[in-house]
Design goal:
Blueprint lengths: L2 E5 L2 E4 L4 E9 L8 E7 L6 E6 L5 E3 L7 E6 L4 E6 L8 E8 L17 E2 L3 E6 L1
Parallel strand pairs: 2-11
Antiparallel strand pairs: 1-3, 3-8, 4-5, 4-9, 5-6, 7-8, 9-10, 9-11
């Protein structure tokens, strides 16, 4: 199984920035072949897609974060980042990263939480107005 650890969450004022990190502490095969996504969840609501990145670093974003958030990956560090700029109070949530490898190589990273089987424990982001 893939083991993931998120970090970088915290409290920030609206309009500010945060960078989240998702580091794989164990992968049975090359980390670069995995699709990796960021998701978020507010208590009582369904988990929501944020962004995902493929093996070739092709990124997809939810409409709500386009132009504000940037996903990137450093395969040598087995880490995917989520740079969050111009944050809004509605960005407040627990943020989770997830990984999976539906084929031998991730050509296009899916944005649906149901496409991912390996999840981290989450990191809380709170944006105040």
């Amino acid at each position: 199984e893939v083991q993931l650890v998120e970090s970088g969450g915290g409290s920030v004022q609206a309009g500010g920035s945060l960078r989240l990190s998702c580091t794989a502490t164990y992968t049975p095969i090359s980390y670069s072949t995995y699709c990796v996504g960021w998701f978020r969840q507010v208590p009582g609501e369904e988990r929501e897609s944020v962004a995902a990145i493929s093996s070739t670093r092709s990124a997809t974003y939810a409409e709500s974060v386009k132009g504000r958030f940037t996903i990137s990956r450093d395969n040598a560090k087995k880490t995917v980042y989520l740079q969050m700029n111009f944050v809004k109070p509605e960005d407040t949530a627990m943020y989770y990263c997830a990984a999976d490898r539906p084929t031998a190589y991730c050509y296009t990273a899916p944005l649906s939480p149901s496409d991912y089987n390996f999840w981290g424990q989450g990191t809380q982001v709170t944006v105040s107005s």
